[in-house]
Structure formats: C-alpha cells, structure tokens
C-alpha cells in the first residue's frame, strides 16, 4: 500500500461517480470514525435520503438487487450497495484491511467489508451521484456467475480457516 494521507480513496476508472461527492464521503468518515478507523462507501441505494441521482438500466438494477440478497445471505448485512466503486478509508482502517486481502476480481469489495467487520471498523454508506457508463468491460452473465462463485469461495475460506486475518496493522 503506497499512500501518504490520513485518508485513502479509490474509485472506478469509468467516471460513473462524480468526484464532487468525495466531500460527502470525507465528512461522513470523519463523523463516523472510531479510534481513527472508518470505511466510507459510496451508495447508489440511498437516494431516498438525499437529492443524489442514479441512472442505470432495469437489468442492472435487477441484478444488483439479486446480488445484494446473495451477499446478505452470505454474511454482509447492513450494507445496501457493496459494489459501488467509490470508497474512502482512514489510514488506520486501510492498514488493517488491505494486508489481509486475497481476491482481486469484482468481489474484492465484499472482502473489504467482511474484513472491516472482522476488525470492528465502522462502515458508513453515503449517497452518491452515479450514472451507467457505456462500454463496460463487464459481462453481465459471465461476471455475475463468477462473482457468485468468488463470494462463496471467500466465505468458505474464512469460515474453514484457510485464510487467516492478522490483527496487526501494516504499512
């Protein structure tokens, strides 16, 4: 992990989320941090709570609902949108989460949230403006199946003890 700031952020390269929404993530992160640890994630599912705008196809909305149900069954409860690629981490949270990561495909967002919960790091969802961007490299059918299999593999590896979680923060 190479960064210098008190907060570390990543976002999808497609520009689907407005960078101006970073102010809301940072404000919620500062408000919700416990002992300097917090993960603030952009959410496309909290529009009823704000004046943000989300533009997506009906197929994508249906698949997101199905995936959310599956993720909830496999253990990430209380987070409505795990896959929005707009996430902010306090340095202390990142130092505990990222050294423990195992997956690199689309399901890594869920592993981040599982590790945050394991370390008792608060996760706060923040409504963001988002629009679907044409030209996605994601295949809806193939990648949805792969994500479902990857999520099952992640949960089984942690439950069976194949993957251990270090309690030590690392730089």
Please give a structural write-up.
The protein is α/β, with parallel strands linked by helices and 171 residues long. It is 38% helix and 14% strand. It has 5 helices and 6 strands. The protein has helices at residues 22-32, 58-73, 91-97, 108-118, 140-159, and strands at 7-11, 39-43, 54-55, 86-90, 123-127, 130-131. The protein has a 4-stranded mixed sheet with strand order 1-4-2-5. Helix 2 (58-73) runs parallel beside helix 5 (140-159). The longest helix has 20 residues, at 140-159. It is globular and about 40 Å long.
Beta-strand portion reads: 5-15%
- Structural class estimated from helices and strands: alpha/beta
Q: Terminal Cα separation, in Å?
A: 7 Å
The H-and-E topology, N to C, reads as: EHEEHEHHEEH
* Largest sheet report: 4 strands, mixed
Task: Summarize this entry quickly.
The chain is α/β, with parallel strands linked by helices and 171 residues long. The chain is 38% helix and 14% strand.
Key terms for this structure?
14% strand, two-stranded parallel ribbon, 171 residues, alpha/beta, 5 helices, single chain, four-stranded mixed β-sheet
List the helices and strands and how they pair.
Blueprint: E1 7-11, H1 22-32, E2 39-43, E3 54-55, H2 58-73, E4 86-90, H3 91-97, H4 108-118, E5 123-127, E6 130-131, H5 140-159
Parallel strand pairs: 2-5, 3-6
Antiparallel strand pairs: 1-4, 2-4
Helix pairs in contact: 2-5
């Amino acid at each position: 992990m190479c960064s210098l700031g008190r907060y570390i952020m990543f976002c999808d390269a497609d520009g689907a989320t407005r960078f101006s929404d970073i102010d809301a993530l940072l404000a919620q992160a500062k408000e919700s941090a416990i002992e300097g640890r917090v993960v603030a994630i952009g959410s496309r599912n909290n529009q009823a709570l704000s004046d943000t705008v989300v533009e997506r196809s009906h197929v994508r909305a249906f698949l997101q609902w199905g995936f959310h149900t599956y993720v909830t069954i496999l253990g990430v409860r209380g987070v409505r949108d795990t896959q929005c690629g707009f996430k902010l981490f306090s340095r202390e949270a990142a130092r505990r989460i990222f050294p423990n990561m195992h997956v690199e495909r689309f399901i890594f967002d869920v592993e981040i949230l599982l590790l945050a919960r394991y370390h008792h790091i608060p996760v706060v969802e923040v409504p963001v403006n988002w629009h679907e961007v044409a030209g996605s490299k994601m295949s809806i059918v193939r990648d949805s199946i792969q994500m479902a299999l990857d999520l099952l593999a992640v949960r089984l590896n942690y439950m069976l003890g194949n993957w251990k979680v270090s309690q030590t923060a690392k730089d």
